[in-house]
Design a protein that fits this description.
Distance between the termini: 34 Å
Order of helices and strands: EEEEEEEE
Radius of gyration: 12 Å
Structural class: mainly beta
Number of strands: 8
Strand order of the largest sheet: 1-2-3-4
Helix content: under 10%
Shape: globular
Largest sheet: 4 strands, antiparallel
């Protein structure tokens, strides 16, 4: 459970009503929580080269779009956690 606790600030959080999950971004990682149980589901670690500053979930709750202050922008599949697209 250590990987789900943080000493650093949360930069953004999003809720998916379709998946009933909460996505919390801090530093370079996203932590996923089950909204029904309040328990952690998974962690997507070090997904960007710099700290996450923005995060959005697509309209179908299938993808998560993440960006940084350095201009990095990546899209990840919410089920697998795989990076599906990197935009320069």
């Amino acid at each position: 459970m250590q990987e789900f606790s943080d000493d650093h600030p949360i930069t953004c959080a999003r809720f998916s009503p379709e998946r009933l999950e909460i996505y919390v971004a801090g530093e370079r990682s996203i932590k996923v929580w089950d909204a029904r149980t309040g328990k952690p589901v998974r962690v997507m670690k070090n997904i960007l080269d710099s700290d996450i500053t923005v995060m959005e979930i697509d309209i179908h709750s299938r993808k998560i779009i993440v960006g940084s202050h350095q201009g990095e922008l990546k899209i990840f599949d919410l089920i697998s956690g795989v990076n599906t697209l990197t935009l320069d």
